[in-house]
Design a protein that fits this description.
This protein is of the alpha+beta class. It has helices at 46-68, 70-95, 119-134, and strands spanning 8-15, 18-21, 24-27, 33-38, 100-105, 110-116, 140-146, 148-149. It has 2 domains: 8-39 and 99-161, no CATH class; 46-95. Helices cover 38% and strands 26% of the residues. Helix 1 (46-68) runs antiparallel to helix 2. The relative contact order is 0.24.
Length: 171
Protein backbone atom coordinates (compact mmCIF):
# COMPACT_ATOMS: atom_id res chain seq x y z
CA UNK A 1 0.00 0.00 0.00
CA UNK A 2 1.34 3.42 -0.86
CA UNK A 3 0.52 6.85 0.54
CA UNK A 4 -1.57 7.45 -2.57
CA UNK A 5 -4.09 4.86 -1.33
CA UNK A 6 -6.02 7.36 0.80
CA UNK A 7 -9.42 5.97 1.66
CA UNK A 8 -8.38 2.30 1.69
CA UNK A 9 -10.27 0.05 4.12
CA UNK A 10 -8.01 -2.03 6.37
CA UNK A 11 -9.09 -4.80 8.72
CA UNK A 12 -7.90 -4.54 12.32
CA UNK A 13 -8.38 -7.58 14.54
CA UNK A 14 -7.09 -9.12 17.71
CA UNK A 15 -7.09 -12.87 17.90
CA UNK A 16 -5.05 -15.36 19.97
CA UNK A 17 -2.91 -12.60 21.56
CA UNK A 18 -1.90 -11.17 18.15
CA UNK A 19 -2.89 -7.77 16.74
CA UNK A 20 -3.45 -7.94 12.99
CA UNK A 21 -3.47 -4.75 10.93
CA UNK A 22 -4.15 -5.93 7.42
CA UNK A 23 -1.50 -8.62 6.89
CA UNK A 24 0.90 -7.24 9.53
CA UNK A 25 1.05 -9.09 12.86
CA UNK A 26 2.05 -7.58 16.20
CA UNK A 27 2.24 -10.03 19.14
CA UNK A 28 0.52 -8.37 22.11
CA UNK A 29 3.26 -9.38 24.54
CA UNK A 30 5.70 -7.18 22.56
CA UNK A 31 3.56 -4.03 22.79
CA UNK A 32 4.71 -1.65 25.54
CA UNK A 33 2.51 1.35 24.73
CA UNK A 34 -0.29 2.19 22.32
CA UNK A 35 -2.22 5.35 21.58
CA UNK A 36 -3.51 7.71 18.90
CA UNK A 37 -1.71 10.98 18.13
CA UNK A 38 -2.64 13.84 15.85
CA UNK A 39 -0.34 13.91 12.83
CA UNK A 40 1.55 17.20 12.73
CA UNK A 41 2.19 18.26 9.14
CA UNK A 42 5.38 20.05 8.13
CA UNK A 43 5.53 23.64 9.36
CA UNK A 44 5.46 25.31 5.96
CA UNK A 45 2.96 28.09 5.63
CA UNK A 46 0.85 28.21 2.48
CA UNK A 47 1.02 32.00 2.28
CA UNK A 48 4.83 32.03 2.44
CA UNK A 49 4.95 29.39 -0.32
CA UNK A 50 2.45 31.42 -2.37
CA UNK A 51 4.55 34.57 -2.05
CA UNK A 52 7.68 32.66 -3.09
CA UNK A 53 5.86 31.39 -6.19
CA UNK A 54 4.63 34.90 -7.05
CA UNK A 55 8.07 36.49 -6.57
CA UNK A 56 9.62 33.77 -8.72
CA UNK A 57 6.89 34.34 -11.30
CA UNK A 58 7.49 38.09 -11.40
CA UNK A 59 11.23 37.59 -11.87
CA UNK A 60 10.71 34.92 -14.56
CA UNK A 61 8.09 37.07 -16.31
CA UNK A 62 10.33 40.13 -16.27
CA UNK A 63 13.25 38.19 -17.76
CA UNK A 64 11.08 36.56 -20.43
CA UNK A 65 9.38 39.90 -21.13
CA UNK A 66 12.71 41.65 -21.64
CA UNK A 67 14.18 38.85 -23.75
CA UNK A 68 11.18 37.78 -25.87
CA UNK A 69 8.72 40.64 -25.57
CA UNK A 70 6.15 41.76 -23.02
CA UNK A 71 3.41 39.41 -24.27
CA UNK A 72 5.28 36.27 -23.22
CA UNK A 73 6.12 37.86 -19.86
CA UNK A 74 2.44 38.54 -19.11
CA UNK A 75 1.36 35.06 -20.18
CA UNK A 76 4.06 33.53 -17.98
CA UNK A 77 2.99 35.66 -15.02
CA UNK A 78 -0.68 34.72 -15.46
CA UNK A 79 0.18 31.01 -15.59
CA UNK A 80 2.38 31.25 -12.47
CA UNK A 81 -0.32 33.30 -10.70
CA UNK A 82 -3.01 30.71 -11.56
CA UNK A 83 -0.86 27.76 -10.42
CA UNK A 84 0.11 29.56 -7.21
CA UNK A 85 -3.50 30.48 -6.42
CA UNK A 86 -4.64 26.90 -7.05
CA UNK A 87 -1.97 25.54 -4.69
CA UNK A 88 -2.89 28.09 -2.01
CA UNK A 89 -6.58 27.20 -2.15
CA UNK A 90 -5.78 23.47 -2.11
CA UNK A 91 -3.51 23.91 0.93
CA UNK A 92 -6.28 25.64 2.90
CA UNK A 93 -8.86 23.03 1.92
CA UNK A 94 -6.53 20.18 2.95
CA UNK A 95 -5.80 21.77 6.34
CA UNK A 96 -9.37 21.06 7.37
CA UNK A 97 -8.70 17.32 7.20
CA UNK A 98 -6.96 16.36 10.44
CA UNK A 99 -5.24 13.00 10.51
CA UNK A 100 -4.50 10.74 13.47
CA UNK A 101 -1.82 8.07 13.73
CA UNK A 102 -2.11 4.92 15.81
CA UNK A 103 1.24 4.59 17.58
CA UNK A 104 2.44 1.20 18.78
CA UNK A 105 5.60 1.13 20.85
CA UNK A 106 7.53 -2.11 21.06
CA UNK A 107 10.95 -2.82 22.59
CA UNK A 108 12.61 0.47 21.72
CA UNK A 109 10.70 1.68 18.67
CA UNK A 110 7.53 3.73 18.27
CA UNK A 111 5.78 2.97 15.01
CA UNK A 112 2.79 4.58 13.38
CA UNK A 113 0.88 1.60 12.08
CA UNK A 114 -2.23 3.40 10.81
CA UNK A 115 -3.12 6.96 9.82
CA UNK A 116 -6.78 7.89 9.53
CA UNK A 117 -9.03 10.91 9.73
CA UNK A 118 -11.41 8.93 11.97
CA UNK A 119 -10.24 9.85 15.49
CA UNK A 120 -13.01 7.76 17.08
CA UNK A 121 -11.78 4.62 15.32
CA UNK A 122 -8.19 5.28 16.38
CA UNK A 123 -9.17 5.67 20.07
CA UNK A 124 -11.41 2.59 19.85
CA UNK A 125 -8.61 0.47 18.40
CA UNK A 126 -6.11 1.71 21.01
CA UNK A 127 -8.51 0.98 23.88
CA UNK A 128 -9.25 -2.50 22.61
CA UNK A 129 -5.56 -3.27 22.21
CA UNK A 130 -5.03 -2.41 25.89
CA UNK A 131 -8.02 -4.58 26.83
CA UNK A 132 -6.51 -7.46 24.86
CA UNK A 133 -3.16 -7.05 26.62
CA UNK A 134 -4.93 -7.47 29.99
CA UNK A 135 -7.35 -10.21 28.89
CA UNK A 136 -5.82 -13.19 27.00
CA UNK A 137 -9.24 -14.35 25.76
CA UNK A 138 -10.28 -10.96 24.34
CA UNK A 139 -11.11 -10.91 20.61
CA UNK A 140 -11.82 -7.83 18.50
CA UNK A 141 -12.36 -6.97 14.84
CA UNK A 142 -13.27 -3.87 12.86
CA UNK A 143 -12.54 -2.18 9.56
CA UNK A 144 -11.13 1.33 9.39
CA UNK A 145 -10.68 3.75 6.49
CA UNK A 146 -7.01 4.71 6.45
CA UNK A 147 -4.87 7.26 4.65
CA UNK A 148 -1.60 5.35 5.12
CA UNK A 149 -0.23 2.40 7.07
CA UNK A 150 2.91 0.45 7.88
CA UNK A 151 6.28 1.28 6.38
CA UNK A 152 4.79 4.09 4.30
CA UNK A 153 4.39 6.38 7.28
CA UNK A 154 7.57 5.88 9.30
CA UNK A 155 8.28 6.54 12.96
CA UNK A 156 6.84 9.45 14.91
CA UNK A 157 7.41 8.41 18.53
CA UNK A 158 10.22 10.92 18.92
CA UNK A 159 9.09 14.58 18.81
CA UNK A 160 11.99 15.23 16.42
CA UNK A 161 10.09 13.10 13.88
CA UNK A 162 6.89 15.17 14.12
CA UNK A 163 7.67 17.06 10.90
CA UNK A 164 8.16 14.11 8.61
CA UNK A 165 6.64 12.80 5.42
CA UNK A 166 3.10 12.58 6.78
CA UNK A 167 1.56 15.88 5.80
CA UNK A 168 -1.76 15.49 4.11
CA UNK A 169 -2.92 12.63 1.91
CA UNK A 170 -1.69 12.92 -1.64
CA UNK A 171 -4.45 13.38 -4.11
Amino acid sequence: MSNNDAGTIVGVRISRRVLWIGDDAYPLQNIARVGPREVVPPKTTPIRDYLKILIGGVILSAVLGLVFGSGLGWVTFLIVFAVGTFRLIRAFVNKKNKLYALIIETAGASNSVLVSGDVTAMYDIAQNITKAIDDPDFEYARNVVVDARGANIGNIGNPAHQSNTFGYPHG
